[in-house]
Amino acid sequence: METSSEQNVYSTSYYFGIAMNKIFSFLLFAFIISCQPIEQIEEVVFDNSQLSKINILSKDIEVKTTFEKKITDPYIGHTLRIEPSQRIANWINDNFKAIGNENKLEVVILDSSLLKTAFENKDTKNFDEKKNYKYELFYLIEFNLYDDSNNLVASTLVETIRSTTSGVYISIQNTEKVIDDLVYLSLLDLSLESNKLLKQYMSDFIL
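User: That's the sequence. What structure does it adopt?
Assistant: C-alpha cells below.
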C-alpha cells in the first residue's frame, strides 16, 4: 500500500511538472512576442487629386462592375470599409471629365480581386517572422468609347497587379494600413497605366 501511494504521488508530481513546463513555455513565448519592437506604419490618405486626370470628348461617362465578387478565402476585398472596385469608381467620378455633346465613355471594372494568403519565410531566423501574410491586388478595367449610334469607336484594356507582405503578429490597425497602402499604390499604378493607354488608343478624343 505504501508503494502504491508513493507511485501516485510520483505520477501526480510528474504530470504537474509537465503542465508547469507547458505554462512556462507559453508565458515565455508571449513575453518574447510582447517585447518585439512595434513597427510604426503611416496612415494612408486616399487623395484622388494625386491620381491621373482625364478630359475626354464625351457627353456621358458610365462606370459598370461586371465581375462576380468572391466572399470566401483567400478573397478579402469584401471585408474592407471601401472595396477596391469602389476606389476605382471614386477615381473615375472625381478625375474623369466629360466634355462635349456626343459619344459615351463606358468604364467596365472586370476584376478587382484582393487576396490574402499565408506563407512561411524560411530565410529568417526570428521565430515571429517565419509565418507571414501575402496580400495581392489585381485590377482589370476596360474603357469603351461609343458614338451616339452605340457603335464602338475605341477601346482599351488596362491591368495592374501589385502585392505586399506583413507579419502575422501585428495589430489590426497596422494590418488595415498595410492593405490601404496596397490598394492606394495599386490605384496609382492603374491611373498611370490608364492615362498612357487612353492617350495611345483614344488620342483623338483626349483633351
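The chain has three helices and six strands.
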